[in-house]
Amino acid sequence: MSNPQQLRYSKEHEWLSTAEDGVATVGITEFAANALGDVVYAQLPAVGDTVSAGESCGELESTKSVSDLYSPVSGEIVESNQEVVEDPSLVNSAPFEGGWLFKVRVAEEPADLLSADEYDAFSSGN
User: Fold this and answer.
1) Tens digits of residue pLDDT in 29-82
2) Distance CA 40, CA 35 (A)
3) CA dist., res. 19 & res. 67, Å (int)
4) What is the rounded radius of gyration, in angstroms, for the C-alpha atoms of the chain?
5) Torsion of Cα atoms, 62 then 63 then 67 then 71, to 10°
6) Which of 13, 48, 59, 117 lies 20 to 30 angstroms, CA to CA, from 124?
């Protein structure tokens, strides 16, 4: 599994794009998508919601379990991916492309986000 180098990662298995004009895209990693199994339902934060880094802001339901969705940064939601709401399997088939979950205007970014190499080591248990 290859995590894109340009992204940053949380220990809760979310990825974060570089903020463009203060807005970053968030999704879950391929590792998390594989661990969840087939995602069948996505509850995403609504536009205008305020999220805090490390706190639950939605959930993903799979054939195996229900998992909370955590925001890797604090800020205001500016877009939720309605394509994922309509077709949650995008989280599994394209976690780094069409399966992104929401966009957030970043107010505060924690210092403990991981690089791709650091996340690879973390998720493999090394």
Assistant:
1) 999 999 999 999 999 999 999 999 999 999 999 998 899 999 999 999 999 999
2) 14
3) 26
4) 13
5) -10
6) 59
